[in-house]
Here is the input.
Amino acid sequence: MAKLVLFGDSITAGFFDEPASPILTNLVKEGLEAQKITDIAIINAGIPGDTTSGGLKRMEKDVLSKEPDMVTIFFGANDCSDSRPIDVQEYGENLSQMINSIGKEKVVLFTPPFVDSARQPDRQAEEIRRFVAKAKEIGEQQEVPVVDIYHAMTVYPGTDEFLQPDGLHFSEVGYEFLAALIVREIKGKRVK
Here is the structure.
């Protein structure tokens, strides 16, 4: 059986009714099953509050030791926060290290998501967009698929539907959207 590791922060962890829930894992599993893909074990390696720096420290234990066939890397919502000492350059270097350790053929990279800066003033839109651009640049350099979830969320007319009242974490609609994007990428990787 193939193994998919969902690697990231609280959004990956399923911050919903509690700091970590199975919502994303379950939605991805259901989405894959709907595509007749039933031979993938999903391992959620999301940690609330994590950044790419924290992700690097736990990568051996939470990702590499699982011997995954596919890994989604979805960090940035905390990296771009004013309260974290991670600049955009370090974020890019951390992503590159992750991709190199995992192997580019296994990775799908997600940009940071849209965050409502009015409700999350330590995450300003201009700074988030710098991190989004860096993720896309790293994806291109490393030749890995990049899902620009920031763009996908902001072109949708009801962007607010994707977020919980805190303006940061995903709502049920947001998780359904994220899971659909993950399923699309996994299906694409398996068809090749």
The two ends are 18 Å apart (CA to CA). DSSP finds seven helices and five strands in the chain.
